[in-house]
Amino acid sequence: MLRRALAQSAPPLVTFAAAVVLAELVIRALDVSPLILPRPSAVFAAATSEAGPLLSALGATARAVLAGLLLSSTLGVAAAVALASSPWLKRAFYPYAIFFQIVPIVAIAPLLVIWFGYGPRAVVAAAAVVSVFPVIANTLAGLLSVDPALADLFRLHGASRFATLWKLRLPWALPYLLTGLRIAAGLAVIGAIVGEFVGGGGLGVVVLGAMRQQRTDLVFAAIGYASLLGLALFGAVGLASRLALRHWHASETNR
Amino acid sequence: MGRGVAFALEGVHRSYRSESGGEVAALAGIDLAALESSFVALLGPSGCGKSTLLRLVAGLDRPERGVVRSGGARPAMVFQDAHLLPWRDVLANVELPLELLGQPAPARHARAEAAIAQVGLADAAHRYPAELSGGMRMRASLARALVTEPRLLLLDEPFAALDELTRMALDDELRRLWREAGLTVLFVTHSIAEAAYLAERVVVLSRRPAHVVLDHTLALPAERSAALRAEPAFARELGVLQEALRHGAALPC
């Protein structure tokens, strides 16, 4: 177990360490201004010396991201179920769901602040808006790809629409939904930080403040913390899908 | 003997829309009836409308013209592949039909376990489909069909994807289950040998649009065993079926 975890995480850690060392050497050799590109050692120093405020900002961003994801996965699954229930509904509404994929969050974030006010509510909304489309698209694909023979079996035994949804369609769509959530998790972090630029709070505000003080090292440190948040979420979704699909889906049984 | 009719099709026509938008006639005037407790094999070339016919008998589809009568009781169906729910173990898969019919948990548990034992899968009741061989998955699928104690069992080329030995074992198993339970079996296949070995009566369909080329009661003993496959009588019946199949395949559309 430990050996496998080590074997899995060693290669990316090695490439990370190599990239850091290389960046450090190149920046020193070329004598780049720390205002443009701070040395990795300076970024690490900022990340540790400012760890207190960074961690509390990370906490605020993480809370908004989780709330946004909860919102987008609930609404996304509900929308997918509605769209899958009739070809007519799908034709009428699906093109507008794509709006959520192409919406420029930077442009819409001020609107969200107007609607929800400054503070976490607008940030949660921004995280939800950018992460809802992959949930809808993937869940819908799953709901519509149900094995027709199994649908026949359910009909043959007089299953209600609800029983067919609950015992066949939703479980069938679960691997698709989890793939959608993996994409949504990363997008929600981006959405939250952009939301914070306008709505205030969290790592977004730390980035803005550091920029005004020309503390590029702190900007990078905040980006690093945000990346850790994204990685942690990605890992959590991966763990959830391993637990949920380990007996039955090829994506987990073929590992 | 005074046996009732299990199901009957009278002058049944069915067509469907092809990918390119044209109408494709699948069934053209099918007349077919089966007595209760009989074992009928439906033999025809691939893609001739056998599955369409089976879905009509199951009540999953309606004919455009003609009448489909069934005994009223809900039939059970076994599909080409096992089609189990991959997220449920064997026991929960076999319980599914009873669950959908609203049976309470303890009762359906006991009946599912009995059906699993009937097909010889008792040791694998708590394993998942992904952990089973193709033959075991098919046995589980058979148990799921038998758990409701259906009066009519419809099978759509159920063993086509299995290796020869597993297939022969399941053929014998199916014969045994049929004789024990006294149900009516309609078995769709494209294998002449399987049709002759399993059934009392073989109905041969032409290629699309399908109609009945031959309706033939086999002159073979009621007891079937592997030795039968080497008998001259068996070879004779194979010849009859093969001739009919060839005739049906050569007909103009």
Description of the molecule:
- The complex is a heterodimer of chains A (255) and B (253).
- Helix content of chain A is 86%, strand content 0%.
- Chain A has 12 helices and no strands.
- In chain A, helix 3 (51-85) packs antiparallel against helix 9 and helix 6 (105-116) crosses helix 9 (161-199).
- Chain B has 2 domains: 5-74 and 152-250, P-loop containing nucleotide triphosphate hydrolases (Rossmann fold); 84-149, no CATH class.
- In chain B, strands 5-6-7-3-8-9 form a 6-stranded mixed beta sheet, sandwiched between helices.
- In chain B, a hairpin with a 5-residue loop joins strand 1 (5-17) and strand 2.
- The chains are: A mainly alpha (255), B alpha/beta (253).
- At the A-B interface, helix 8 and helix 9 of A face helix 2 of B.
Helix and strand layout, with pairings?
The complex is a heterodimer of chains A (255) and B (253).
Chain A: H1 2-30, H2 40-49, H3 51-85, H4 87-97, H5 99-102, H6 105-116, H7 120-144, H8 148-156, H9 161-199, H10 202-212, H11 216-245, H12 250-253
Helix pairs in contact in A: 2-11, 3-4, 3-7, 3-9, 3-10, 3-11, 6-7, 6-9, 7-9, 9-10, 9-11, 10-11
Chain B: E1 5-17, E2 23-35, E3 39-43, H1 50-58, E4 65-70, E5 76-78, H2 90-100, H3 105-118, H4 134-146, E6 152-156, H5 164-181, E7 184-189, H6 192-198, E8 201-205, E9 212-217, H7 232-250
Parallel strand pairs in B: 3-7, 3-8, 5-6, 6-7
Antiparallel strand pairs in B: 1-2, 1-4, 8-9
Helix pairs in contact in B: 2-3, 2-4, 3-4, 6-7
